[in-house]
Every structure is written in C-alpha cells, then in structure tokens.
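> tool_call: predict_assembly(chains=two)
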Amino acid sequence: MTDTDHAAFIRLTYQLAAEAAGRGDDPFGALLVVEGRVVLSAANTIHTEHDLTRHAEMNLVSLAARTLPAEALARSTLYTSTEPCVMCTGAVFWAGIPRVVFGCSAPAVAQVYGATWAVACRETFGRLRSSVEVVGPVLEAEGLPLHRAAGD
Amino acid sequence: MTDTDHAAFIRLTYQLAAEAAGRGDDPFGALLVVEGRVVLSAANTIHTEHDLTRHAEMNLVSLAARTLPAEALARSTLYTSTEPCVMCTGAVFWAGIPRVVFGCSAPAVAQVYGATWAVACRETFGRLRSSVEVVGPVLEAEGLPLHRAAGD
C-alpha cells in the first residue's frame, strides 16, 4: 500500500466526518478496506442515536463483526479520520483488525476541543500486547478544520 | 455504601453472567446502581448478536445513554462481574459514570483463558486523567468458577 492510497482513503474518512457533522453528529468517519477496496464505512452517530458509545470506529467494528467473516477482518485495514480513543482501540483489538491508519492525531484533536482525554492508540495497543500496526497522522492539516468548525 | 452492599450487587452480576453463559454467550454481567437501587442491567451478547463489541459493560453503557439523563449517570455506580477491558473502560469514561465496582480482576480472568489482554482499568482511567473511583476485586473466588466453566 502506498502513501498515496492512504491519503485517498483518509480523504474519504474526512468526507464521512463532514457528512456526520451535517447530520448533527460529531465529525468523525471510518472505513474498512480489504485488498485495496472499501468494504464498509461508518460515521459518528452519538447525537442522532443518543448514545455516546457510537463513535465512528465502534459503529464500523460492530458492522464488520456482524457482516464479515473473521478472516476478512484479519486481512483488513481500518482508516479513521481521527486517532481512535481508548474505547475504539479496544474494539479494534477485539476485532482482530491488524492495521489502523488515522488522519488527525488524538492530541491535536483534543487540543481543538480543550480536552484532556488524548491517549496515543499505539500506547494502548502496546499495553494490550497487540501487534496491530498503526500509521498516522496522515493529512492532519486537512482534517483539523472539521474539528475547529465543530468546536466553535 | 458498605462492603455488604457491594457484595450483594456483585453477586447479582455473577447471576447475570451465569445467565449469559446459559444463552451461549460469555459469562459477563453488569448493573447500573443509582442511590442504592438497580436501575439497569446487561450481559454479554457477543455470540447471540454476532458482535464482539457487545460486552456486558458496553451493552449497559449504551442502554444507560439511551434511556437515562446524564445527571443520573453522574450519580451512578457500575457493577461488573469482571474488571472492565480497555474498550469498556473507555465507554465508562465517556459516559461520565463516576464509580466502578468489579468482581473478578482482569489478570485473574485472563489467566483462566490463557490470554494476554489483561490491563488494569485503574491504569486506563489514569491515562485518561479521569477521576473515576474503582473498587475491586470483590468476591473474586465466587466469580472465577464461571470463567473456568466457560474456558473448559
């Protein structure tokens, strides 16, 4: 997989994030890619579903678990507009997804919201003794304005 | 809240865990208690829902978010049969639940399953700079047989 591919998929997650914001949710989107092809997508639905656990990656992992065989998950890459939080990192771990590529880093996004919850997902995977590969940030400067608009 | 109350609620989570196992799910159960009263309960449904994210605490937090006002969550205690995993710890954090009481510790349960994913939830809350109070293990010896039976 080339960096160009990563950029194209991250731009798609930003588009999903913008669409989520347009629906009144928070600006987060995620994709599942298998062999270079997008097989599933999801976005944040915490406001429209009145459920704070409905982060983009949680929605994606749930959908993937319900609709794809485990062997597809084991060959997949999860692309997400923002570095996964602790909850979503745990979901990726349980799902056996071997690679995560994120757009904006957790510290950069937390700073926009004035929040203190930034935890590096690489650190969480490490504590789980997981070998999940993490790539990112990718095109962070293109993604942060989505959060600045939401934080206003 | 006395230690006796904790024991009674933890025994209820073990009962929920046993019922989950009876349905073909994994032996985990959780309760939400507000002012000494059980207001919600949930159990693991990962097999019956074909969704590995459906841990007892995730189901409970989702249900709580959808059905209770935030101010009730802010006065609640989550009781769970086993120390919450990283995913569920994150969900508790996002929910603003101020206290967790667990039965069996993550290391003890991981050992039963021969697994390496044990992470202390106190450590995760600490990394999130959260002030969630954690109590446990409570009656661990009464809970571990549920896992030994499932691990066989």
